Amino acid sequence: MKFIGFVIVCLTGGLLLYGTVDLPDWGDPASPASTHLSDYYIEHIVEQTQVPNLVTAVLADYRGYDTMFETAVVFCAGLACFLLLRDFRPKKDRYFRHVPTGVMLHFKNPDTRLVAGNEFEHMDKDWVPSDMIIKTVCRILIPFIQIYALYVVAHGDFSPGGGFQGGVIFGSSLILMAISYNLKTLVKRVTEKFLSIFAALGVLIYVGLGFLAMIMGGHFLDYGMLAPLLPSDPGHIRALGMLGVEIGVGIAVMAVMVIIYMNIVSEGRHDEGL
Amino acid sequence: MLWPIDLIVLTFVIFCAIAAITVRDLLGTAILFSAYSFLMCLLWAVMGAVDVAFTEASVGAGVSTVFFVAAVFRTSRRTKD
Question: Which of A77, A88, A194, A254 has its CA 20 to 30 A from that of A202?
Answer without folding.
Answer: A88
